Amino acid sequence: MMKNNLTNQNTESEELEGLFAGLLKEEASKGTSAETFAYKGCTYEVPDHKPCVQTVRFSGLSLLWGKQNFSPEKGEAARFFVDKSDDGNKNHFAVYMETTDCGSEDELCPVAFYIYREGEPHPLSAHEESQLTGFCARNDFPPLKEVLTPGRYFLLTDGLAADGEEAVLQRVGRYACLPFAVMEAGGALTHPEAASADVRRPEEELLAGPCSSGILCLSVRFSAPLPAECELSAWCYTEDWKLQAQDERLVTARRRGERTMNFRFRSDMIWMAGCYTVILQHNREPFASVTFTYCGEPVTEALCRPLSKADMEYRLAKDLAENDTWQRMHEFTGMARLRPRLAELMCVSDYNSFCQEQCLAELQENIYMAVTSGTAFHAKRLAYCLPKLLDFGTTGSKMQDCAEWLECDSPEELLDERTGQVIILYNIGVLCSGKGLELLGALEQAVADSFFFWSLILCGTEEEMQCLFACSPALEQVVRPEFRFRVDHPSLTEVVHWFQYELGKTAFRLDAEAENELVRQVEAHYGAVSLWSREEILSFVMRGIVGRMKRRIRGGYVPAHKPSRAEMIQVKAEDISLDAWLQASESVASGEGRANAVAFAESMKELNEMVGLQSLKEALTTDFYRMRFNEQRRRLGLAVGDDAARHVIFTGNPGTGKTTVARLLGKIYHALGLLSKGEVISTERRELVGEYIGQTEEKLNALIQRARGNVLFIDEAYSLCTDADDRRDYGHRVVEGLLSVLTEPRPDMLIVLAGYEEEMERLLQSNPGLRSRFPYHYHFADYNADELMQIAFRLLEREDYLLTPDAEALLRDTIADTLKSKDRYFANARWMNQFIVSGVLPAMARRVMESDRANSVELYRTVERADVEEAVHRQASLAGTVRKARPRIGFKA
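^ AAA family ATPase, sequence as received from the core. Prediction below:
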């Protein structure tokens, strides 16, 4: 019986083997035979593919699924999170990597990729693509045929090397494997409740001081046991909402029942004293915040609070981690107050997205914003990101330099094509004067017209924005408070981290004592270094820190005891000296100040040589020292108020030196750095007032553009408003146009109005805005007899003439007699100059040439009494003719 059973079994076995052989032959004939491999006790099939002869070496491998990705080389957690209610789980996988070696530079090497779920023999998706040395490749799988569900998965590759520095893959026979997990997204999960927490720093890291990089441990205690098979992560942010460190923990089945989770934050950035916020996430869903104030203590208590989707911290955590624009703005400084505000404004974007999903009309609101900062660059940078961050529902955006807008052939096109656009304007100061006022008017009309859907962002410095709003109250009114953003100066933490970031680009590193010393010194000089540019910080790092460190090492170098590599890259506390650096910078600034002082003295020399005008000379000298004083306060980080306008009014009779002083002011203000050119552009009413509507504005705009960088001197300015009641006179248009320039905080222009004192007072009364725009008012008094005599002496001395005692006495008497009979039109120094040049010297020339005396130097240099007498007779004859004509109002300078 047993023999028969064995015989039957053998027969059945042979039949089974024959059946298997037939199936194999059938599969072979179809060309679809599959290889198999074993992984974690299970057997998996690999679809038939062309075998890879040459293995490909790679770097930077990342596995992507939808918008999520992880890179094993960076030590990132190999996990993806899926929402069960989201049909997007049918997204496709992709493998991104850089091919470093295919064995030949021009040889294509095929690599096969497969995605498996553990325990299921067939791949969910497969992709094969040839790789080429030196190229970065994104290998896209076809879409999944089924929804991706939570579980354990792995990526299988055939043709990738899994050894050497790229050993991020596990070897499975001839294949390489990368395991990963798929977990349910935390949005629909029940989250654990954080009850209490504390923060600890290892005592050995506090030996050098409280402020150092390294480890900070957070222990969070929960009110109930933690759920198994989930991820808990902690993201630690500074007061500026910049990521300081993060840590992730996987709660496995072995940890079931535990109520405490310990996170270990390791940061290369210094842990500064201040407030921190830790966002706890359950499967990447924020559910609690932990706040603490770090003061350098070994143990610090923390405050736990649950989060809802309506909380600002929730939005910031989600947006900072997932939004591309937030990522781009991560390095922006001075944003501590703005980031929470922007997170709240993003709710409008969410609402519009929801409307799109429901096939409803989006919320369309014309939004007008203003972005300011200490420097135009930071305002412009933020303004560029706002349309992408705050989805206005528009279709595009355009940045426009207002100076270029002003000069383009068709400036009206920008606003004509504004529908559906966000227009970002920078360099807005040019809209406050000249032709820019026309564009400003067009902009006001566009804002007032609510028929078109569009948005506007104005960006610039505080001064530019104040000037713009002063010129256009209508624009100021439409920019609501919630849409006004000011980028502040960087915080102390940001400044310290700046230094670390720049040093981190090199091979050099701060030790713990050096980190604490850097914090102390930056805090002591925060006012100064917070205003530094990136170039100034880089200069201090490379020359002020690394340079001192190298000098220290060279000074202690002994061939018999060479320093180790670690010693040669370690920056010590003694290598940091902001004091020395700032003192050296101050010396350079002092040198520049001395150079400016020399230039100022040279430009003041001619003014000082003028007779009289003592109050004006003292005022200009005071102004120079005040500017030097403010510049030094800026270098020391102290507050400096906005520079006041320096526009001037000169009053006085003809010939008192107003035009000459205006010319000298151009040189002086150029030496002070207040004017870029320093020339004088002189004009008067007939050159400004047009004959028809619009011509006055054209003339004024052209003149203002020509006067940029110079002194604009308007002679007989009172003639612009000859009759306060006659508003048809175009002179009023000139005054109104000038007001726009006068409101500019730094117009690179000095406006000087000159004329008779009484008439100039009437001009100021005709327009209430004028008086406050001219803070400096200098009256040029008539010269007395001694001053006119001094002017005559200087003129004759300059031309190499001498007065005899008798001639001097007669000249002095003549001046005194002339002053007794002078009127308001007396020409003062001009009269003195004309009396000498047109009276005395011609009389002397005639006398000398008619004499028979031999030629001598003294003969041709000496002015005698007869020459003065002849000039007096000539003046008397001319005076009779002049009295018959009505004197001209005003003067020629």
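The longest strand covers residues 175-184.
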